[in-house]
Amino acid sequence: MGSTITEKVLKEHVGDGTYRVGEEIGLIIDQCLTQDSTGTMAWLEFEALGLDEVKAKLAVSYCDHTSLGFKGESTDDHYFLQTIASHFGAIYSKPGNGVCHQLHYERFGVPGETLLGADSHTPTCGGLGMIAIGAGGMDVAVAMGGGYFYLTVPEVLGINLTGSLNWGSSAKDVILTILKQISVKGGVGKVLEYMGNGVKTLSVPERATITNMGAETGATTSIFPSDEITLEFLRGQRRDSDWKELKADDGAHYDDILDIDLSEITPQVAMPGMPDNVYPVEEVAGTPIDQVFIGSCTNGGYADIRKAALILQGKRVDPSIELIISPGSRQVLQMLIRDGSLDALINAGARVIDPGCNACIGIGFVPGYGHLSLRTVNRNWAGRGGSKFGRIALCGAEVAAASAIKGKIVDPRELDPVKLDPFDYIVDDLLMLKPQGKQVEIRRSPNIVKLKQQVPLPDKLEGEVLIKVGDGISTDDILPAGPSTQHLRSNLPEISKFVFIYKDETFAARCREKNGGFIVGGENYGQGSSREHAALAPFELGIRAVFAKSFARIHHANLINVGIIPFVCDTDEIEQGDRLSIDVTDLRGDLEVSINGSKSIPVSHNLSERDIEIVKAGGLLAYTKMKN
Length: 628
Ligand code: MIC
Ligand code: SF4
Description:
With 628 residues, the chain is of the alpha/beta class. It has three domains: 5-264, Aconitase, domain 3, CATH 3.30.499.10; 268-414, 2-Layer Sandwich (Aconitase, domain 3); 460-627, Aconitase, domain 4, CATH 3.20.19. The strands form six sheets. It has a seven-stranded mixed barrel with strand order 21-22-23-24-27-26-25. Strands 7-6-3-4-5-20 form a six-stranded mixed β-sheet. The protein has a five-stranded parallel β-sheet with strand order 17-16-15-18-19. α6 (171-182) runs parallel beside α7 and α11 (302-312) packs parallel to α14 (397-406). Keywords: Iron, Iron-sulfur, Metal-binding. Residues 7-407 form the Aconitase/3-isopropylmalate dehydratase large subunit alpha/beta/alpha domain. GO terms for molecular function: 4 iron, 4 sulfur cluster binding; aconitate hydratase activity; metal ion binding.
């Protein structure tokens, strides 16, 4: 039987265990990336491992989420990241250079290699044919130190693309259509592998849009073949020597196949709430909007913003709204300057900001009370744009640009088609700094707070249920990103005050008062970002276990890594305020939790043997040190 691309790349990288679907393997990681909001912690964790230097083939420390330095603490974070990367042997991408995922596929991604990134949209590099996986900072710290990344061998969902896209529809509409079909849980435990004749009609940036937002299906990652189009892209980036062909064998076995005819894809919009709350544009056309944002790691590429410029050329942004353009990288910005797009956009009334995450993470351009912001980003949960009162809808660049002209959601097919001319990429790595080694002194501000040592798990966990939440709780619900927290990522005592702040303002204070306790959730608890702060901060508040019906992959791993046990049970049986007690001396046996001393219910978990050892040791850092 032939192999899928996923199987080929994973098998070539198995360092520990046997490749069998559903079993745990230790994966050899070639490349690692960190960014400035998860990176401060990841680098502190790397330091805590006591290693001399980065052992992975390549590590890049990016600065993108708080690249505007909106607080002095963020600027301090940047200097810490720059000096620690240089000291331990990683490349540093300076603020203003762009978003990590966009930059990584432009400048470093290599088909057939593995990438582990401390950001959930790391699968973007799957557009180049990499196995690129998002993980928490501790896992990335261990991988930077040359350790394996442990994961359960995923199933492979083949997505068979046929036909080609019509005017008005884009790669974003492809992934929104897939999300509508399989939902935000449909990719859990799977790799989405693209195949079929339609693949060759998509450029690498279009593929990257699709693999980027595959993260929103809960998939482990997404991957495209590496073909002539990939070679052409790498040639454009002056990196053709990094190319290698990658394709699935004839007769490769897919666990399931989803057929998508690109010629039937139409423009789509994900309305506020969840990325799978997707409607054909005609059903929501006419909805008034207050703001349009074009950019992010999903649609911050040159072609997307160029298309928006062509749509807006000679027209005017509706005076009742604002349009913000945020190029994904400095390369994109330089190209938009060269071809006059920036002129066209500014003349139309758009505002252009520095390449980076910015508004996507709620740094600037925070939507006002009840406002609807139409964005080309990938997430639209409540609170995502930096305020719990703003609402976000997701779409591609064409819908966004057309809607900016009218001040309401518009079907771009009503406008004359625009077409891109052939172009060359501008390659200039001025803001990519090579490491200088040990002579570089690491700069730390008081806001960079050293990690506490992890201590072994006690035999019994007891305490109160301090919050009970419903299904689909995202990491943004647990620990919101945005202006109130982004500068505190390296300061756990301070950032922990914001845990569940949008859901229950008294949560953190109650945790302190009660000396910790438990969280109870529903299905898919912890979906979304790789932010390990959504586990570290509750731990800081004394949370020692989360009881839920199911967990999202990265958050599940993060809980284990910080020493919180993710238990699975029927949480309908537990209420906020209940007192729980559970004996955890033998996590391999039958387990039950006692509720208020009056009844007990069975609980289970999805911990592997290794995970059990990690939680017993108190977390991944303690475990790794113990093993070394
Ligand atoms: C996100 O898009 O939610 C983020 C901000 O990039 C996060 C990382 C973080 O919280 O720093 C992610 O996707 O992992
Ligand atoms: Fe940055 Fe937004 Fe992409 Fe996260 S989703 S990496 S915040 S651009």
